What we know:
The chain is of the alpha/beta class and 304 residues long. The chain has 3 domains: 4-90 and 143-171 and 273-303, Nucleotidyltransferase, domain 5 (2-Layer Sandwich); 92-141; 180-267, ATPase, nucleotide binding domain (Nucleotidyltransferase, domain 5, 2-Layer Sandwich). The chain is 36% helix and 30% strand. The protein has a 6-stranded mixed beta sheet with strand order 10-6-1-2-3-16, sandwiched between helices. Strands 13-12-11-14-15 form a 5-stranded mixed beta sheet, with helices on one face. α2 packs across α6.
Amino acid sequence: MELPQVQELMVSWRRMLKAQSVWVVVSDRDVICCWKNAAGWVWRSALWPPDGCRGGVPLQPEPMGELLADLLLDCDVDGAQIELLLPVGACNWRVLDDVTLDKLAAANFSYLNAAVSDEIPPSQADYRSYLSLFDCVVEVSTPRQTLQSWIDVIELADLPLRRVTWTLGSAFRATQCLVPLENAHVAWLVKHSESSSPRLILLRDGIPEVDCHLNLDMDLGNQVRQTVDAWTKLSNAFVSVSWVLTAPESEFHLLAKMLQCNGNLLDLGIDSAWCPEPLLPDLEPVPLDPLAHLALMGAWQEAH
């Protein structure tokens, strides 16, 4: 009979010998796991328990952790090293003017934290990460309590957490590679299956300037036109806006028809881009969510 300590040591050794990255895209509705097996890149999804997650925050960490552990166990994934992509609603982003990553490193991030709030130190309220984008730096912030809740889910699944990123940020990275964003004005309409309201992201020369949550109780076309018109008036010259649409297949054509009335709709060419295959197609009721697809593509691009 093996002692519990010996069993734990054996499990740890097996994980080290078979270690592999597993990207885990989470939303209010479901979890999507993606990894590479002998046949290539594959994905598998599962629905969270009812009311398990709301507003990007896990409300039932224990059953959610158990579900994730069982999902990977059923898929015979050994040595999973989790790279977690946080829900769209779990983070916020903003562009930092006149800042570079070198300046951030030199200042040890302290002068930025001090400038945001005099009441609650951001270093205590939010976790912040930074990425370089052309000549700018984009700050992505996550409430520390939200981040800790997701860390708890992974720990309750008894899985090692290797990295944490953001679904929308990773999808944006993939979009940059698929369409020309630099030296252009681009409006990106994002409809994620986890959310009832779309987001309109406006980019000037590849830099996100506006991130607007649209109200489904109001005319969507009017909201889009008014927001884009107000944005383009900030330019001193005539501006031609191109459109990018990311939405579930069931809603894509209706939204595309609305956007085509406002300008040129760019084709991401996502059908011919890198895409993992469903591990068990008969058990996946719907195709891979387009935003999750872009997020996984961004993770794949960064890894390669």
